[in-house]
Amino acid sequence: MVNVAILGFGTVGSGVAQVLAENSAEIAAGAGEAVQMKYIVDVRDFPDSPFGKLVTHDFAVVEQDPEVQVVVETIGGCGVALAFTRRALEAGKHVVTSNKQLVAEHGRELLALAKEKGVNYFFEASVGGGIPLLRPLFNDLSGNKILAIKGIVNGTTNYILTAMQNRELELDAALKEAQALGYAEANPESDMNGMDAVRKACILANLSWGRELKPEQVSVIGIQNVQLQDVRNAQAAGGALKLLAWLSKADDGQIYAFVEPHVVMGSSMLCHVDEAYNAVIITGNAVGDALFFGTGAGSIPTASAVVGDVVDAVRHLSAPRGIGWTEEPVLLGDPDTLVSRWYLRSGSEYTVTEPCSASQLPPAEVRYRVLD
Q1: Is the domain of 281 the same as that of 320?
Q2: What is the pLDDT of residues 27-61, one digit of tens each?
Q3: pLDDT, tens digit, for every residue of 323-357?
Q4: Distance CA 228, CA 232 (A)
Q5: Residue 296 near residue 277 (C-beta atoms within 8 A)
Q6: Which of 93, 100, 200, 249 is catalytic?
Q7: What is the pTM of this model?
Q8: Domain check: are 286 and 302 in the same one?
Q9: What is the CATH number of the domain that holds 118?
Q10: In the annotation, is 117 catalytic?
Q11: Distance between CA atoms of 360 and 352, rounded to whole angstroms?
């Protein structure tokens, strides 16, 4: 029997508890032994929850209990979550998280600490929600040189852009609809300004190329200034407006990393990914293009990925996986030097250019890259 503690009982934490309880037989079969929740750490009480009796307000109870071998962190952010993660690893406990900000900003340190203590730090759910993405990247595609990663990694913005395209909603109305449906937070800033996608891009880059790309190094343009006329124009041109994370590695070792709205043409699989779905195309020199598609957020889909990591941690209680990346900085390339077609708009007129770099473009009110 392996005992698990869940830190944070919000959307993801409650989903993890539900999946652990409902799928206990399948989880035991996959892990090789039974997995049991022993504690839930939260500042609140949950008297109406079937798991309410497991709640403790004191993380030290978990930290000092030798029977707890796996800790699931779903608190979010880099405050208490970082402190508790460090303490859990220091105590020799395996840690699983869905916290993309923590992994993007402190992943190298936490992976190094896990390795030092002989435990695992897993974070499959930090990118792509329920989509199996990171484990295939560092396992199944490890025989490849990763050349590029492009994708829709934020379901909130994809839902908003889809609503604007399909139902002719202005940006503010589409955002309010996304909030009402639970796809967007009350404060949607990190989604709208692209930072959520940036953090996920950093995690993908770091696993792909083994060096630390930091969020502040990624060029970013969010969707907060997208206008309905540009969504309409993209559709009229045979495409759709999508917020993409773009990562590529050139032959000279330079890495290009940016998050921007793109006009994605109908010839690309990403053009047809709508609503709150995510899709990522990983290009390897041996495999070619591999598409990963599915639900990128939500309580149960994200919990699916978290529990998958719990199972992996139980399988490797005494044999840590040892993944990580170095502190060596990446050699960054300037995204504006990349050649692509461009969507340009001035006033009510728009055009799609021939392939060129950004420096060759004429002045325009709005410019977006075109992905064919």
Answers
A1: no
A2: 999 999 999 999 999 999 999 999 999 999 999 99
A3: 889 888 889 999 999 999 999 999 999 999 999 99
A4: 6
A5: yes
A6: 200
A7: 0.96
A8: no
A9: 3.40.50.720
A10: no
A11: 14
